Amino acid sequence: MAEPQHIRGPSVTSRALSILGAFEGSSGNLTVARIAARANLPLSTTYRMVHELEEWGGLRKGSDGKYQVGFRIWELGQMAGRRLRDRAHPFLQDLFDLTHENVHLAIREGTQSLYVDKIYSSRKMPQVSRIGGRLPLHATAVGRVLLGAQPDWFVDAYLQRELEAPTTKTVTDPRILTQLIGDVRRDGYSVTIEQMRMNALSVAMPVVFNGQTVAALGLVFEAFRYREVQRFMPQLRGTVDRIEVAMAGRPVHIGE
Amino acid sequence: MAEPQHIRGPSVTSRALSILGAFEGSSGNLTVARIAARANLPLSTTYRMVHELEEWGGLRKGSDGKYQVGFRIWELGQMAGRRLRDRAHPFLQDLFDLTHENVHLAIREGTQSLYVDKIYSSRKMPQVSRIGGRLPLHATAVGRVLLGAQPDWFVDAYLQRELEAPTTKTVTDPRILTQLIGDVRRDGYSVTIEQMRMNALSVAMPVVFNGQTVAALGLVFEAFRYREVQRFMPQLRGTVDRIEVAMAGRPVHIGE
DNA sequence: AAACGCGTTCTCACTGAGTGAGAAGAATGT
DNA sequence: ACATTCTTCTCACTCAGTGAGAACGCGTTT
């Protein structure tokens, strides 16, 4: 599982960043030795830097002596994409109140969709996507919406690569996918059935700001309820509209 | 507003961290020059490091040329305190479904409470606390719960300092607060009225894991509805219980 | 109880990566 | 057209960062 986390240059900063990077896709708690191994750095160097990061608050030493990402990084992370997340969130919650289906908001990061917000309760725990998690662009409704928002050269290049097939029903044929992306662009929404997980269906629509698709809003529920898709469409549409209006509006100051 | 972000040492890492720190409490979009000023670093040094951070994904250059915190930091931040947030979240949502009042979860960080999760819809936007935001420990219900979980020497030291009074009703007298903290410890919950904002009331209870108060769960609603506090107590209690059970249980694997 | 494995902590002499003043160029405002 | 502010880049100097290696701590195995 441990990828060959190669160091870009011999720069000090890149080493420090390698250490933070060692926590990406980890169990969350790492010893100094493990960090060193994952970051491909000498032990003493790692030790020194881990301490510097700890003092700053970027890392935190747990009661078991292992290190984990500190809350200062979490706080800092809250600054990223704040406009979108803050303005969209209340309407995602409204949509959940209305439907009680899992709602999520994703953006494109490279060749994956990144889930930036997600509403769910203990009744239906999310099965594949999680906040902060990534999924391929071709196998989910939000992914296809985000892919469709990219220029043709991007779509073609994406479909050229080896495409994962999480289920036996996942479409990976570039020709068919090109067709499907065309449909998404024309219709303004995407519906995928059992592409990422059996018995799961997802619907998604683009969120547009300044003429650009900045995110995709989606709903997920059981595949056998496919007839209900029509019922949810207007609610999804309405939510997207409200988000778009909120995005354009003046800043709403919350708290401090 | 710009605090004198002093550099701990002349170490390269501390400089890089100063740059990230420049975004804390900022508007979100900063020019290189502004970053340099806030981080107290020479312009050329800042320039070089900003680019290194950008290449790694820690910073992102917006369409206006200004820099903002990148999603890689956000993703990394999702690793911090994941156990608590992941396990508690579905039950916070359940509580919101039940009450439709603003629900939040906070931990103590230093002498402040840090809001790590929050459920709200567009009906009642949060007024003072936001996810990733901080508030003083003595003026909110979650804060008092978290304060009460600390040893006496901590409480005494905290109350010794100059205490903020966000409203005219905020209690800042150390004697009275000591008494109130005692009540919280005895009763296992805290109710505060108009301590942080006029016309706001909050109730909170501690979340205990391994014999330690790791967080506080709270509800906020309008002060004039103070009679309803009793109605919410069992629901809060039940939610806390479920969170505590979930915290102790085996890991529930959600997606990747 | 000794040997082992695995992790942490710390020292120190060497050296090349990081430094930052400064200048030129690009943008923006008045 | 001028003033102001911000970005980008160069280069000679030097001091901060480096990492092998040793010592130590702590469970577990033999």
TrEMBL record, chains A, B:
Xref: PROSITE patterns: HTH_ICLR, ICLR_ED
Annotated ranges, domain HTH iclR-type: 10-71
Signal peptide (from-to): none
Residues covered by the IclR-ED domain: 72-249
Gene Ontology molecular functions: DNA binding; DNA-binding transcription factor activity
Keywords of the record: DNA-binding, Transcription, Transcription regulation
SUPFAM superfamilies: GAF domain-like, Winged helix' DNA-binding domain
InterPro entries associated with the record: GAF-like_dom_sf, HTH_MetabolicPath_Reg, Tscrpt_reg_IclR_C, Tscrpt_reg_IclR_N, WH-like_DNA-bd_sf, WH_DNA-bd_sf
Protein's UniProt name: Unannotated protein
Organism annotation: freshwater metagenome
